[in-house]
Amino acid sequence: MTASDTLAQVFELPNLRRAWRWISTSPDQLCREFCGPSYADFSLCPDVLLDDIRDQLQRGIYEPSVARKVYLPKRDRTLRTYTVLSAQDQVVYQAFANIVADRFDAVAQPGYLRQSFGHLYAGKTSRTFYRDWRKCRRTYIGAAHAAVASGLEYTATFDLAACYDTISHQVVKHFLGDLGLDDGFCSPLCECLNAWTANAHGIGLGTGIPQGPLASGLIAEVVLRFFDVHFKPRTWICYLRYVDDIRLFGRSEQELELLLRELVETSKGVGLYPQSSKLDVHLVRDLDAELKSISSPSEDWNSGAKPDQERLIPRILELTRRSRVHDDTRFKYGLSHALPSARLNGRLVRTLDHRPDLVHTIVRYFRKYHKLPHRTGEAFATRIRGVDLAPAVRAALLDAIDGRVPHSQEQALNKLAKSLWNSEDLPGDLKIAVGRWLLRQGEVRRASLPKMLRETNWWIRSEFVRSLSDNSFARRDLVEVLARAVCDRNAEVALAAASRVSALKLPIAPRLRDIHPWAARVLLKTKRRVCGVDYALRKLLGDKIPRLGWQSFLGKDYPWFTDQALECERCARTNATAFVNVLDALIDQLLFALFARDSRLGSYQLGNIGGVLKSTRLAQLYPMTLKLTTVIHDKRLRSRHAHAVHRASGKPTSSVHSRFLPRARKLITEALKELASII
C-alpha cells in the first residue's frame, strides 16, 4: 500500500482501536454466530494485535485473506452470499470505513431520518457504529404513516436486485473521490474489496461489497445516496429510502409511474439494476402489513412485564398453520421470546422444511434446550442425512444438537458424521460442522488429526483447531499438532492455536523463528514483528522455503532489502523485465551481506556483481548462490531496462519473457536452502 495523508489516518492506533470496538460490539446476531470465536481469540490481547496490524499496514506488507462464503437460503429458494472475514481483515475494513464515515456524515446527515433511514452513522464517540436500527425503523414507519395521513394515498415500491453483489468498485472509488478521499486511499480499499469478493477460483471480479461485515453497510450508503441526491424534491411526493428499498408516496398512479422510470434510469447510471418483481404502484390499504410493522396491532402476549407463554405458544402455532409462516416479522419476534415447549417442537421442524431461510431463527429456539427431546433429535438427524436442505442449513442443525442429545443418539450421529466426512464432495459449511462434531466426540484417529489441520481454507483449519480439547485427545497428541498450528502462516489459525494452548496449559516449545507473530504475542509475550523479507519471498516462492533470520543477517540494510523484496514480488506479477532488474539489485545486496558474514569468501564491492562471477571460493562454498547470481545478472544485461545493446554480443537488448519466471523462482529457492546454514 502506498502511503497518503488519508491512508495514514487508517493506520493510526486510535482509529484501529475504534474499529475493533465497533466490530466486537456489533448487534448483528448472524455475525456473532459466525465470528464470535474469532473475536474471542482476538480479545486475548487486542492492543498488541492492533499494534501489529498497524505495523503491517505502515510497512506495506498487509495482505487481505481469502474470504469465507456462506450460502444462506432465501425465501424464494435462491441463495444469499454471506461473507465472513478474518478478525484482522474486519479490523482493517472497519478502519477504512471509519475514515469514510467521518467524511460521509458531513454531507449525508441532513438527509438522516428524512430521506434515508438505514445504516446511519452514529459518530465517533458512540458505543456502536450505526444508530439503533429499531429507532430508525420506527421513524421510517412513522414517516410513511404521516405521508398517507397527508393525503398521499398511492405508493410505489422500488428495490434493487443483488445490490451488494453488483456495486462496481470503480463506482465506489468515484463516490469516495467526491468525498475528498485520494487515490492513495481508494485504491488499497478497492484492492481489499476485490480480494474479499473474488470467486471460488480466486478470480477478482471488480464488483461487489462483502455482505456480512459491519463496514459494508456504510460503503453501500456512499453509493446509494446517489438516489437521494438525484431525486428532485416535490411537495406532492414523499421519498423514503431504507438501504436499497425505496418507497414513494403520491396522489396518483400516473405520477408515481413516471417517478419509477426515473429511479430505474438513475440505478442503471451507476451499474445497478432494479428487481422487476418488486416494482409496483398501488393504492395503500394496509400500510403496517406492507412495512412489516409489529407495533400495530400490538401482541397480547407481550402486554405484561414478562411474555405470557400461555398466550405466546398458541400465537406461534397460529402464525405457522400448516407449517407455513404467515407473518415473518411477528413469527421471528414471538419465537425469540418463547421458552422451549413440546407443543412447538414438531411444528417448527416441519416449518423448517418449507422455510429453510428461517433456520437460524428456529435453531436459536432449540438451543435454549439443555437436552433436546428424543423425537426432535431424530427429526434433526433425518434432515442432516438428507440432501433436500442447503449445506448451510444442515450444518446449522448439526451444530444445534451438538452436546444436546443423549448418549444413545450420539452413537448414531457419530456414524452419520463419519459417513458424511468420507463423502468426496462434502461442501465447506457442512465439512466444518461435521469435522467439529467428530473432533469433539473424539472420533478422529491420532494419525488423521494432522491431515485435518492441513485443510486448504484457513477458516476450516481455525474451526478445527478451536474444537480440540484434552477430553477427546491425549495431551501429548495435542502438543504435537498445536505446535505446528501456532506456526501456521494464517494469523487467524495461529491465534486460534495459541488460544487453545493457553486454555489447555500445554507445554509447547516451537522455535521462535517459526512461530507466527500473533501466536508469539499470546504465548511468549514477545513483540515479534512479521519479517517483511520472509513475507515477500513466501508470496513469491511459496511456503517451502526455509525461515531465515534476515534482520540479524542484513543489519542496517534490512529496511532497504525488505522494500526491494516487496518490489521484486510485485514486479513478478506484472513485468518480468522489471523483475529481473530488481532481483539483480537484491542479489547485489545479498552478496554484500554474505561476504561480510563469511570471511572465507574475501571482500566484495557493492555494485560489482560481475567481479565475483568467476570466484572459485563462492563456487566451492555456495554454488547455487553463484548460479542464481550468474543467470540473473546475464539476463539483466540482455534486458532493455539495463542497456540498449548487449556489450558482449553487440545485439539489441529485449524484454524478458514471463516464461523465465518459473526458472528464476527455482533458482532463488535452491539458493535460499543453501544459505540456510549461514543466515
Structural class: mainly alpha
Proportion in helices: 55-70%
Strand order of the largest sheet: 4-5-3-6
β-sheet strand percentage: under 5%
Instruction: Output mean pLDDT.
Output: 92
Low-confidence stretches: none
Radius of gyration over C-alpha positions, nearest whole angstrom: 30 Å
Gap between N and C termini? 28 Å
Task: Characterize the main sheet.
Answer: 4 strands, antiparallel
Topology, number of strands: 6
- Count the helices. How many? 32
- State the shape: globular
Structure overview:
The chain is mostly helical and 679 residues long. Helices cover 56% and strands 5% of the residues. It has helices at 5-11, 13-24, 29-42, 46-59, 87-108, 133-149, 163-166, 169-178, 183-196, 215-230, 253-269, 287-291, 309-319, 328-337, 342-354, 359-366, 374-385, 391-401, 407-421, 428-441, 449-452, 458-466, 475-485, 491-504, 517-523, 532-541, 550-554, 558-574, 576-597, 616-621, 623-637, 661-675, and strands at residues 68-73, 79-84, 154-159, 238-242, 245-250, 280-283. A hairpin with a 5-residue loop joins β1 and β2. α18 runs parallel beside α20 (428-441).
Highlighted features:
single chain; about 675 residues; mainly alpha; two-stranded antiparallel ribbon
